Amino acid sequence: MKIASWNVNSIRVRLERALAFLERHEPDVLCLQELKVTDDIFPAQDFESAGYNVTRHGQKTYNGVAVLTRKAPSEVQIGLNDGVDDPQARFLSVDVEGVRVICVYVPNGQAVGSDKWQYKLAWYSRLKRHLETRCSPDQPLVLCGDFNVAIDERDLYDPAGWEDTVLYHPEIRETLAGVTRWGLKDTFRLHHQDGGRYSWWDYRAGAFHKGLGLRIDFIFATEPLAGRCTDASIDREERKGKQPSDHAPVLATFDF
DNA sequence: ATGGTTGCTTAGCAA
Predict the structure, then answer these.
(1) Which nucleotide is closest to the Cα of A166 by its C1'?
(2) 3-state secondary structure of A195
(3) What is the spatial distance, in angstroms and rounded to an integer, between the CA atom of A65 and the C1' atom of B3?
(4) Can you tell me the mean pLDDT for A157-179?
(5) What positions of strand B are covered by protein, i.e. any atom < 7 Å from a CB?
(6) What confidence tier does A101 reach under pLDDT thresholds 50, 70, 90?
(7) Residue A210: exposure state from Cβ atoms within 10 A (0-12, 13-18, ≥19)
(8) Residues with CB under 7 A from strand B
(9) Please, which pLDDT band fits residue A231 given cuts at 50, 70 and 90?
(10) Domains, chain A, ordered by start
(11) A247 has which bridge partners?
């Protein structure tokens, strides 16, 4: 089973790229983030014609997540449904081919100490609670998406320079570590130990061209799946050419 | 260089 995850930064602008990506990689699952469309505008027909089932959770202008699956999904959960009144579309969970696939677009946080930063911390806390109360580290499960955190110094070009920002502040790194300690492995690190392998580059100042990026998009897997992960990669080719997203897709393959 | 770019929506925000 091949699983991919991609923050497309507007599905309308990236539709042709997304369809070409499906043709090139033929993933069994593709998790998408930052759709920036309501569900009625989401181009479901195009993906269905390409052979995928569409589960989406969108909203106007901001956020939005979707999971495309070759096989029909079950146990669809749209939103965290934890009693918190939250209009932001950032969470989707489906079961497909015996695997629980959770697609997330974690809040960016804007600035350390801001209201959005508090929301980011609280959102991570809600995600952790979801795993603890509704999932098991012993079940086959992947948690994919844009986590808006770099894990360690290998995941960004200037760790000292990023230390006090929302993407690398010690508190948010510990917060993500608290989630993964539940029982999740970073599939990319199972196969690559080197630094300088990034999934996001700022649109500004030619960051991609200069190699100035961060790795903030991950496919985490529970032990039953991590033990069967045969490959993981970042498709940085997708950051090149006309009208790229600022994120590259990440992929993981499992032997079953 | 307190800069720079992109997308949504239409001047300002979010990333």
Answers:
(1) B15
(2) coil
(3) 32
(4) 98
(5) 4-9, 14-15
(6) very high
(7) exposed
(8) A 9-10, 12-13, 36-37, 60-62, 107-108, 110, 116, 203-205, 243
(9) very high
(10) 2-254 (3.60.10.10)
(11) A200
